[in-house]
Amino acid sequence: MTTPAVTIPAVRQLRPPTPGGPLVAFVHGLEDSWESWLPLSNVLPEWSPVALDLPWRPGNDYLWRRRPSPAWLADGFDLLGRRPDLVVAHSFGANALLELLCAGDRRVPETVILICPLYRPPDVAVTWRVFERARRSFEQHIHDSLRSRLGPRLRNMDAEVVERMIAKAVDRVGPSGFLAVFDQFCASASLRLDQVTARVLVLAGGSDPTLSPAAARILADGMPNAVLSVGDSYDHFCYARQPEDVASRLRAFVDVASVVSGHPEGVAT
Questions:
Q1: Which CB contacts under 8 angstroms, 24+ apart, belong to 254-259?
Q2: In this structure, how many other beta carbons lie within 10 angstroms of the beta carbon of residue 206?
Q3: CA-closest candidate to residue 5, choices 61, 73, 74, 68
Q4: pLDDT range class, residue 122, cuts 50, 70, 90
Q5: Residues of the chain above pLDDT 90, percent
Q6: DSSP state letters, 69-136
Q7: What SS3 state is found at 112?
């Protein structure tokens, strides 16, 4: 029996480049699609956005786990042909980016945005209670991710059909998907955040069961040049559900960061 090959990363153009606009790379989370960035990128017309299509996309077979997620992300950056001016990463993808930041990888730009990363503060022990809580949150994320990808179609679908789709998705992802996330969550407590030199925005939600505002504050405080922004009504998929509001926070951060770095017209480095 032939073992299926792991699908390599790819670069997807979210829309035609904006002349003079900064090159912005979007990084999706586990069981999420590069297409989930379309609503947010569409309300940021001044940017030239691309999305990395990564092996942890929906429907994957999890063979990619034989290799660390930051290595896959680094491969994606290599495909761009140049260092992006800005990276915006979500959830599992945000953690892969955070690991590259802590390692001082030169493919990562000087300005990054982490949306709802998976972070375990060092004083939170890994217990069975934490494991079970994480498992419940992961299942809820699969629910929310599928509903988010269905978009406007969800309104015209039978509720029972949707629930069957969600149940099948949860079964298909199975323990492999959860353990990929839980391993990353556990390992995050040991990251050398003090080694991160980039300007970082940590964007968190008051309704996100994975990253509490308190944990987000500890994460941001651990990086020398990081700031925290919390949306009280944001959930784990805030960037897709409330793209205009999220865009305003991202734009404000990038404007400030570009002035600090000496590039008032953009974030180009």
A1: 254/22, 254/86, 254/111, 257/111, 257/199, 257/201, 258/111
A2: 13
A3: 61
A4: very high
A5: 71
A6: HHHHHHHHHHHTSS--SEEEEEHHHHHHHHHHHHTT-TTS-SEEEEES-----TTS---HHHHHHHHH
A7: strand
**Confidence band of 182 (pLDDT split at 50, 70, 90):** very high
Query: How far apart (Å, rounded) are the C-alpha atoms in residues 238 and 258?
Result: 24
- pTM across the whole model: 0.89
Tokens, residue 5 = 């090959």
Strand boundaries in 14-110, DSSP class E? 23-27, 48-53, 86-90
Q: Is the Cβ–Cβ distance between 214 and 68 less than 8 Å?
A: no
Give the length of the chain. Answer: 269
Structure tokens at 134: 């994480």
Is residue 111 within 8 A of residue 83, CB to CB? The reply is: no
Enclosing H/E stretch for 72: helix 69-79
Q: Which residues of 52-83 are buried (b: 16+ CB within 10 A; e: fewer)?
A: bbbbbbbebebebbeeebbebbbbbbeeeeeb
* Radius of gyration, CA atoms only, the chain: 18
CB 89 within 8 A of CB 115: yes
Q: Are strands 23-27 and 10-13 parallel, antiparallel or unpaired?
A: unpaired
Rounded Cα distance, 97 and 76, in Å: 11
Instruction: Specify the pLDDT at position 8.
Output: 85
SS3 43: coil
pLDDT value at 164 more than 90: no
What span, in angstroms and rounded, lies between the C-alpha atoms of 200 and 220? 8
Which residues lie below 8 Å from residue 253, measured CB to CB, with a gap of 6+? 113, 201, 227, 229
Map residue 238 onto helix, strand or coil. helix
